[in-house]
Amino acid sequence: MVRIADCREADVAVLDVVLPSESVTANHEQRYARQRAGLGSYLVAWQDGRPVGTCEVRWDGCEAPEVRAAVGNCPEINGLFVWPASLRSQGIGTSFIRTAEARARERGVRHLGMGVRQDNVRAAALYWRLGYRHVISYVDRYTHLDAESVPQHKADSCTFMISTLDETA
How many domains is the chain built from? Predict the structure, then answer.
C-alpha cells in the first residue's frame, strides 16, 4: 500500500539518501523550501516506511516563458518521480496526480498542468488517460550534476498538458 503525504522537514534528509536528486535548481531542500513559502506542495509517496517517489505542485506555475505566455500561472505538477523503476505502472503516478488535483480543487483551482518530455511516451499516455491535453510544445532548460558533480546544462523538448478539473471529483 502506498501513502501520499506532504513532505516534512525530517523527510528531506531521508529523500537525499534514498532518492538523491541531481538537480541544481530543484533538489529536495529547494522543493521543501517552496512548500514552506506557500509556493508549492511537495508530496512524497511512502511504501513500507520508505519513500518511493516525489512530486511537486507548483502553485505559481511553470517557469518556461513559452508556457507562461500560453497559460499564465496555471499551477503545474512538476518533477513527478517514482523509484525504483520496478514500482512504475503500479498506480503511484496516478495517486500523485489525483492527490495534486484534490489539493488544487481545495484551493479553487480550475486548471492544472504538467510538462512531459516528448520522448516519454508512457508518461504522456498516462496523462492523456487522466484527462490532460496538449497545449503547447516548449523547451525545458535545467541544470543537473553529472556523476563527477559537474553541472551540466540540459534542454529537453517537452509538451505542456492541461486538465480542466471537475469540481465534483
Answer: 1
Cell of 57: 505542485
85 touches 68 (CB < 8 A)? no
Residue 81's beta-bridge partner residues? 54
The set of residues, in sequence order, having a beta carbon less than 8 Å from that of 44 and lying 6+ positions away, is 4, 5, 6, 7, 11, 15, 51, 53, 54
Tell me the β-bridge partners of 5: 44
In a domain, 19, yes or no: yes
**Sign of the dihedral defined by the CA atoms of residues 95, 120, 146, 64, in that order:** negative
pLDDT at position 151 over 80: yes
169 is a domain residue: no
The overall pTM is greater than 0.85: yes
What residues contact 49, with CB distance under 8 A and at least 6 apart? none
* CATH code: domain of residue 160: 3.40.630.30
Which residues span the domain enclosing 117?
2-164
Span 62-80, pLDDT tens digits: 999 999 999 999 999 999 9
